[in-house]
TrEMBL record:
Record-annotated Heterokaryon incompatibility domain positions: 66-225
Protein name stated in the entry: Heterokaryon incompatibility domain-containing protein
PANTHER family associated with the record: DOMAIN PROTEIN, PUTATIVE-RELATED, HETEROKARYON INCOMPATIBILITY DOMAIN-CONTAINING PROTEIN
Source organism per UniProt: Vermiconidia calcicola
Pfam families for this protein: HET (PF06985)
């Protein structure tokens, strides 16, 4: 393959300029070396041998520079499966040398790029972490913050849908090559060149959404790999883009700096409330895919660790939520059904965390106006494995205290609907219940799938998972639990009524709405609950009187309703 010297020369010049002139990038120049690094030497055409350096932090100078690779694995193959199952003993054999030619195309391209940039070492997760060793993977996967923030540059194989596709090939590069038109015979100016205008845009809403149509941007791990890096080379189909903490440039010369830049928000260059930044990160992250469900927290652990280092030491991180903003963080909801990225298991996260969802999530915690938190976190008990506080907890139980009212879930097989019914006369006094549906709201199926519901412009109910009926531990009644194996909502015994709870979490002043959690009793632990969904209701406007009946203001109606609710403590798993 002919090496694209143009892009790599461009990359070298951009990196050199950054290293000399960008103070923000220099400020983060202290290097923390990973456990292992690949020595690539500096002779790209002649040397096929690479060597794995074990315990790099102990045997190499602390100022050693290395590049890091960010890429997509793609569909499973025998070769990939073998690489992902390597143990520490397998990797130790690489310390005596291994062949470049036997590596996947993306790995080979990364070695070539690293050599031409005159960097001696390279970090690739599949070759530097024993992913076949669960304990090592748990320990090392949560250290990505150090790996990517300490890398001299991160190489992003943006255009490669799998590690078997070369990112240096750039099959569409001819589109940006210029053609000489010549010179007007009477003109003394220079030659005139012309090329096709690039169809891609660098003015995406967020960075690294620069290449939002590229395969790498569907990968969950890539978000933190790019945001944590000082310098990033994005290899596209036809050109190379470069970004760092102070600049964003592209070979095509058509880029504009994004107006809303997630990277600047994350690093503090743009001032946003930390809770807003975290919700932006979670929404962007949950759009993406993971090969392994249990990587849900490790793949964002570096971002969480970075934010924790910049905030209050007392702000604990609990399964994707923060204690300083815990009530606000509870206001997540599923943005859409979509297809499950990977099959979920009951152990993939507590029901109250967005980690338990299997699709994109968003937050109803707005940033306009004030809010009143009606629920508070009373207690939290978490037990962590080898991944520590930023990994997936082995168990996580919280105690919430807030006002609640009863609901009832009813399956109606004749009309293919599920109904949420408010108990008794309480329904008539709820200030957010539509008059024509004062007792019952129906969750309609859409093409045999039922999960995201929009009753009207004023009400949304969003169940987190398909449900099935289960018996309470003491055998006294029924409850519901997530049916994680079901692609759609089916009856599964929902022919009888099941009692639920509606817990008021907060009300928002700017948009005037109320947010609730829908809770069900646990079928595995007595006196405990699980979250099964979320409820949102706009509360602005006035309740007009009828035939001389009294008209209550919004504040009066809320006060009357809140007084009718019972404030209790609920233990959630």
């Amino acid at each position: 393959m002919d090496l694209p010297n143009g892009p790599l020369e461009y990359a070298a010049a951009a990196i050199q300029n950054c290293a000399r002139n960008h103070q923000s990038c220099k400020a983060q120049s202290q290097t923390t070396l990973p456990k292992r690094l690949i020595e690539v030497t500096s002779v790209p055409e002649q040397d096929d041998t690479l060597r794995l350096i074990e315990e790099a932090a102990s045997v190499l100078p602390s100022d050693s520079q290395y590049a890091a690779l960010s890429y997509c694995w793609g569909p499973a193959t025998d070769v990939k499966s073998a690489m992902l199952s390597k143990t520490q003993a397998d990797l130790s054999e690489f310390s005596v040398g291994f062949s470049l030619s036997k590596l996947p195309a993306v790995f080979r391209d990364a070695v070539i790029t690293t050599r031409l940039l005159k960097i001696r070492y390279l970090w690739i997760d599949a070759l530097c972490i024993a992913q076949g060793d669960p304990d090592e993977w748990s320990r090392e996967s949560v250290k990505m913050r150090d790996v990517y923030s300490s890398a001299y540059v991160t190489i992003v194989a943006a255009s490669s849908a799998s590690c078997d596709e070369s990112f240096l090939a750039m099959p569409h590069r001819f589109f940006i090559e210029g053609f000489k038109l010549g010179r007007h015979p009477e003109s003394m100016d220079g030659d005139v060149f012309v090329r096709l205008r690039s169809s891609h845009s660098h003015d995406g809403q967020y960075l690294p959404d620069t290449f939002m149509k590229y395969p790498v941007d569907d990968r969950g791990w890539v978000l933190q790999e790019v945001l944590l890096s000082r310098r990033v080379l994005h290899f596209g189909h036809h050109c190379l883009a470069y970004s760092c903490l102070e600049s964003f440039t592209c070979e095509c010369s058509e880029c504009r700096r994004p107006t809303i830049n997630l990277r600047e928000s994350f690093t503090g260059q743009v001032q946003l409330a930390s809770v807003t930044v975290w919700h932006m990160l979670v929404q962007n992250y949950t759009r993406r895919q993971l090969t392994v469900a249990r990587d849900k927290l490790p793949a964002i652990a570096g971002l969480a660790a970075y934010l924790k280092s910049r905030g209050s030491p007392d702000n604990a991180y609990i399964a994707g939520l923060w204690t300083d903003s815990f009530v606000r963080d509870l206001t997540w909801h599923r943005e859409s059904l979509g297809k499950r990225h990977v099959p979920l298991m009951q152990t993939d996260g507590p029901s109250w965390s967005w980690v338990s969802a299997d699709s994109e999530v968003d937050s109803w915690a707005g940033d306009r106006g004030g809010y009143i938190a009606h629920t508070k976190l009373v207690d939290c008990t978490c037990h962590y494995g080898t991944g520590g506080e930023f990994g997936l907890p082995e168990s996580a139980v919280i105690t919430l205290e807030g006002p609640a009212c009863p609901l009832r879930l009813v399956w109606d097989p004749q009309h293919a609907t599920i109904q949420l019914v408010a108990h008794g006369s309480l329904a008539k006094s709820l200030p957010f219940w539509n008059r024509r549906h004062s007792k019952v709201h129906t969750l309609k199926q859409n093409n045999s799938s039922l999960q995201f519901y929009n009753f009207s412009d004023d009400i949304e109910i969003n169940l987190d998972h398909p449900l099935e009926v289960a018996f309470l531990p003491d055998g006294t009644g029924r409850t519901v639990r997530p049916n994680l194996g079901a692609p759609t909502f089916e009856s599964h015994g929902l022919d009888a009524m099941v009692d639920l709870l509606l817990l008021l979490v907060e009300e928002q002043w700017g948009d005037w709405y109320a947010f609730f959690l829908i809770l069900a009793k646990s079928d595995t632990h007595e006196q405990r609950y699980i979250r099964i969904g979320a409820f949102w209701r706009r509360i602005d406007g006035r309740h007009h009187g009828f035939m001389g009946m009294k008209c209550y203001s919004r504040e009066e109606r809320w006060s009357r309703w809140l007084a009718s609710m019972e404030t209790k403590q609920f233990v959630l798993t």
